[in-house]
Fold GTP cyclohydrolase-2.
Amino acid sequence: MLKLQAESNVPTQFGEFRMMAFSEDDKNWMPHMALIAKDTDLEKPTNVRIHSECITGEVFHSKKCECGEQLDSAMKYMQENGGIILYLRQEGRNIGIINKLKAYALQEKGLDTVQANLQLGLPADDRDFSVAIDMLEQIGVKSVNLMTNNPEKIKFIKDSNIGYNSRIPLQIKSNEASASYLKTKRDYFGHLLDDENQ
Ligand SMILES: Nc1nc2c(ncn2[C@@H]2O[C@H](COP(=O)(O)OP(=O)(O)OP(=O)(O)O)[C@@H](O)[C@H]2O)c(=O)[nH]1
Ligand SMILES: [Zn+2]
């Protein structure tokens, strides 16, 4: 069971967020995080972004994916409109950074993101979003406008006690390095992405 271990207000370049750390015990140095923009009204459908960790994209500005830009764009949106970002420690769709780099090495040899995971004997996507539901319940969110292109996340919300109100698309323009990754997301995982951005 996840427990709120600590919380504090933190000013960022986008504005101030109440940052909360959730984990099962306080020895966990990689807790899931909730960032609540000020003026977030939990009585109305709440804008929510469920975001999976990507150290290469968010910290090191990798061009292979759009995670860093998605996170920045979500932080900006939540400051402007109110809302919550759940930052889940699910690096590499939960296979971890070591396996993700191994998968990238296979991608250099021509495999796509899914084939690379499978070749490593790992699932294409090993994430379970029930931690997000747990966090939303503990925060007191009743229903959400979910910021995502991933139908799997929508399904998780619909199958939970949290109400699903609407989807907020979060589409970043692709570059040469990320185009094939985005194409796989659309073709294999059924992500709701427009053609012109592939
Ligand atoms: N295994 C693996 N993981 C990747 C790869 N590229 C990005 N990721 C991870 O994918 C996760 C982000 O998931 P995405 O599938 O890009 O997007 P999503 O969160 O499912 O969907 P959106 O809500 O629309 O952003 C992060 O944890 C990244 O580290 C890759 O080539 N292989
Ligand atoms: Zn990424």
In short: The pocket of guanosine-5'-triphosphate (ligand 1) is lined by residues 52-54, 65, 67, 70, 90-93, 95, 100, 103, 113, 117, 148-150, 153, 170, 181, 185, 191 (CB under 6 Å).
